[in-house]
């Protein structure tokens, strides 16, 4: 009889696993593990995105700081101000370019064209600032489109010498007319 009582106690004990509930427990455990992993993955993805954006911001800030430290020395304040403004536009256009999906070919083309124009303008500003003839050199440079890009340095020197000759000719003409006016005034006074 004692044996029979033990057997009935064993059957009533809920702590023993039931073979039919074993599959359900395993399935619930798998779901819990999957949910936990999904939450962990979501958390880590958020942290990685945050870290990536922080690194991009810091890289942009360092890049800007280095560009300012190594920046070109300008002779004329107006050229420096315009150049710096154009560089900020270039940086913003680069950010825009990176954010445009590759499927937007027309938008990418427009941004790249704008980048080329602003960079070209900054090149002209540097030429004008470094040349004794200033913007006259740039006008001569732009008017002579015969040379190829590989001959760009030669083209700049030629434009500069043409601009210098033009400036000297204007100076000579101005000084001659002043000299002639002075001579005629002196001869009138003598008479």
Question: How would you summarize what this structure contains?
Answer:
The protein is mainly alpha-helical. It is built from six helices and no strands. Helix 3 runs antiparallel to helix 4 and helix 4 packs across helix 5.
Overview of this structure, please?
The chain is mainly alpha-helical and 191 residues long. 83% of the residues lie in helices and 0% in strands. It contains six helices and no strands. Helix 5 packs across helix 6. The mean pLDDT is 79. Residues 1-31, 162-191 are annotated as: Disordered. Residues 176-191 have a biased composition (Polar residues).
For the termini, the CA-CA separation is 161 Å
Helix-strand topology string: HHHHHH
Roughly what fraction of the amino acids lie in strands? Answer: under 5%
Mean pLDDT figure? 79
Task: Tell me how many strands there are.
Answer: 0
Biased composition (Polar residues): 176-191
Region (Disordered): 1-31, 162-191
Q: What keyword list fits this structure?
A:
191 residues; mainly alpha; 83% helix; single chain
Layout of secondary structure:
Blueprint: H1 2-12, H2 19-69, H3 77-99, H4 105-130, H5 135-143, H6 152-190
